[in-house]
């Protein structure tokens, strides 16, 4: 069992996939980290030695912001946008898309306008007209 920043990584996954379980680390960054640590991405987590795990933990914690630190930073950035009253801040308040997407036909679920699919409108012959 390997833990980094209060997240337990799955033992039976390859290293590159397991590192992507951390918030803020995707597959490309995981491969970069493994290249820095001189580790094969196809090794399973359960097969790592204690030196390798220590090296991985050191690289991740000293170089990158992950998990709680990154979440706190993102929350702070959104709070700053809201406080200064920017357009993006108001979009965050209303829980609407902030990056210029159209909202007339898309993002119905975000706006709370969920439409169920409707039949042809023709009543069945067994029902009264």
Describe this structure in words.
There is one protein chain. The chain has 6 helices and 2 strands. With 129 residues, the protein is mainly alpha-helical. It has 2 domains: 62 residues, Helicase, Ruva Protein, domain 3; 34 residues, 30s ribosomal protein s13, domain 2. The model has no long low-confidence stretch (mean pLDDT 87).
Strand tally is 2
CATH fold naming of the largest domain: Helicase, Ruva Protein, domain 3
Radius of gyration: 23 Å
Mean pLDDT: 87
Reading the helices and strands in chain order gives EEHHHHHH
Q: Kindly state the percentage of residues in helix.
A: 40-55%
Broad shape:
flat
- How many helices does DSSP assign? 6
Percent of residues in β-strands: under 5%
**Which CATH first-tier class of the largest domain would you pick?**
Mainly Alpha
CATH architect. name of the largest domain? Orthogonal Bundle
Taking the sheet with the most strands, its summary is: 2 strands, antiparallel
> pLDDT under 50 segments (min length 5)?
none
Q: How far is the N terminus from the C terminus?
A: 66 Å
Give a brief description.
This protein is mainly alpha-helical and 129 residues long. The chain has helices at residues 15-19, 27-36, 50-63, 68-84, 87-93, 108-111, and strands spanning 2-4, 7-9. A two-stranded antiparallel ribbon has the order 1-2.
């Amino acid at each position: 069992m390997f833990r980094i920043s209060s997240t337990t990584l799955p033992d039976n996954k390859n290293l590159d996939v397991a590192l992507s379980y951390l918030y803020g680390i995707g597959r490309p960054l995981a491969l970069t980290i493994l290249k820095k640590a001189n580790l094969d991405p196809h090794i399973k987590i359960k097969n790592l030695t204690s030196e390798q795990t220590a090296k991985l933990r050191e690289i991740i914690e000293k170089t990158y912001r992950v998990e709680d630190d990154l979440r706190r930073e993102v929350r702070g950035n959104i709070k700053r946008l809201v406080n200064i009253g920017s357009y993006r801040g108001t979009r965050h308040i209303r829980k609407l898309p902030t990056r210029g997407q159209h909202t007339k036909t898309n993002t119905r679920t975000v706006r709370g306008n969920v439409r169920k699919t409707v039949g042809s409108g023709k009543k069945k012959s067994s029902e009264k007209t």
